[in-house]
Amino acid sequence: MTQDKQHSLLNRGEDACNVLKKHIDNKDIIRIISHNDADGISAAGVIAKAIKEEDGQFHVSLIPRLKIDTIKELHNEQYELFVFCDMGSAYIDEINRLKKDVIVADHHQPSKTKEEEHVTHVNPHLFEIDGSKDLSGSGSSYLCVKPMNKKHLAILALVGAFGDMQYNNGFTGVNEIILKDAINSGKLEVFKHLKIVSKDQEPLFKSLAYTLNPPLTGLTGDLEASQEFLEKMGVSYGIKFNDLEDEEKDILKDELVKINPEICSDLFYVAQESPAIRSLEDFSSILDACGKNKKTGLGFSIAIGERGNALDAAITQLNTYRSHLMKGFQWIRREGAVEKEDIQYLYSEDNKLKTIIGTLAGVGLSIDLFNPKKPVIGLSRFQKDIKISGRTTREMVKKGVDLGKALDATSRSFGGQGGGHDIAAGAMIPYDSKDNFLNLVDDMIKDQLNKNNRS
Ligand SMILES: [Mn+2]
């Protein structure tokens, strides 16, 4: 059954590939519109790189979210093929009205409208495949180029999957098929190793503090504690991991495994790449940092293969992002979250914290910075609006918490909008409704927990 569904999805990718090839052959400039996060940048990269390799041309825009107005504006653009990556499935109605060929390569919940003949819709949900963990936006995009013999681009699709946090101690579903292609390209190796970040760039204590996934309780987000930890075991903290003596590496490994056994697991490694992006997770962090610091063009250039100065500039973005993160964790360790009855929240107007509050909430929960029994709601102010990022634990989801539903319903009652998954969700609400919103979310989570108790 599963295989049938996967097969149908792969066929849909082939349909999209035929449309793409037709327009490359016609020498049309192909219009790509994608999301500005790590998955979206990788998705645009997969399509653009394939076009480039086939001697075609493209024009790409990376945007924070697709709006109806954005699609309306495309009516004025003179292109013969539009490709939406990592977005578009919720707007098939509007997209149908574009009277040119369209490919939608997305993995978010699609709208109920059926696509018209000029629209090729590649989305796992259409085939009852879970788009939150089994295929990313860059994965859907990869399926549209896979038939052109582009196995090496499967690597970039995995970078996007890491960006969307679809790796959970392994890849599942269609992501597994993509992983096989990546390995078969001969460029990707997978082996067990210490999964601390930037082993060849940063002094060891920073590598530990910067490692978010798997989380290292007591070390993640804390430069001082990481330094002390290494000093205590007599391992040189100021040099890079890759420069340690083998003996030191062994000591370190033993101690880190005690904190989190998952720290020693599969590393996805491309030996011929530049050191900073040899690990696909490091690659994904760099694209993520470019997106969050509004340097999407830079991120995209790395995705399609630019290195040298561009990569140096992208690494600078990563460093900036990480220094913001460290400040954020410091802030949380100092102030903590404000607890209500059934939720807790973080609120900041600080420019540096705005874009990272969701990460702080999620990682903070995983390293015990918050009460695990209450979902964390991060709020950051953007002029007249507040951006909401909610995170909770698997355990609370089992007890009935569904943040996606809670944030969707509550934000709508204040004229905002929201949604997402049970464990992680987001919303946008007017600034004035902040306090009422928090009270309502608190009530709603209480209801969810009560209902679950009774059933
Ligand atoms: Mn995505």
UniProtKB/TrEMBL annotation:
Parts of the chain that traverse the membrane: none
Domain DHHA1: 370-446
Keyword Metal-binding set for record: no
DDH domain residues: 30-144
InterPro entries reported for this sequence: DDH_dom (IPR001667), DHH_sf (IPR038763), DHHA1_dom (IPR003156), SSDNA_exonuclease_RecJ (IPR051673)
Molecular function GO terms recorded: exonuclease activity; nucleic acid binding
KW Hydrolase (keyword) present: yes
Pfam family, one: DHHA1
SUPFAM superfamilies found in the cross-reference section: DHH phosphoesterases
Keywords per UniProt: Exonuclease, Hydrolase, Nuclease
Protein's UniProt name: SsDNA exonuclease RecJ
Record lineage: Archaea, Methanobacteriati, Methanobacteriota, Methanomada group, Methanobacteria
